[in-house]
Amino acid sequence: MITASVNVDEFNKSFTRYKLDLDLEIQPALKEQTRLLLKTVEELLPPAKRAQGVKAIRKDISKQFIDEQWLASGFNLHNAKLAERIKGYLKTHDYDAIKQIARDTGIFNNFRVQEFSENDIKRNNRGRIIQSGTKILPLNRTPLVEYRKSLEEHVGKLRAWCKNGYLKLGGKLPAWISKQEGKGYFVDVSGNPSKPFIELGTFLDYAKDVNSRYNVTQRAVDIRAKAMLLSIEKGLNAAQKKFYNKSR
Q1: Which uninterrupted H or E stretch holds 187?
Q2: What mean pLDDT do residues 13-24 have?
């Protein structure tokens, strides 16, 4: 279970005012605000779009590995003649010639050719791949592509942590997020007349690191606290306007 220290004083004060000033029943009001809080948390978590997550994974992998397809394209420099030269060198396995072109174009300094292995991947303490001075060109491209696709399949996993509770409360998630397994817990005791509450959290081991870096939970709580005060203002103004029109 992952826990995070969050100051909810202002949120609780806003919720109490929200319920009393707008004369709302506790259970539907609590469920609505929990759903909106989860929506805010989910939207603050990275990536904003699946394409951004995929791009980040490919950029991470490129710190240590070279994709033969990228080489054959001429480093995506849109130079047809350069691409044809490199394709020719790949067919004859003239890697020294490719290295020289890479150095001449300033793309990278060096690479070595060997079989792809996940054991060769070096990461920092946050799990991100470390930039390598000598990159690896896998002899067989297929394992590298399969590894990359396996990582891309998990894009949206972090944002899906609240899936179980959010969907039960009537929320909707984009397909690329909802297909992920919800690694969170959700306890709804909002119907308890003496002490109504909703408890939620996540079991994702890296969620605490992400939350501390982006301050997601606290930001979401603060956003919703202010939003409730705005809802109160709008609700009271609407009621006052209705009363004024009726009394004329």
Answers
A1: strand 184-189
A2: 94
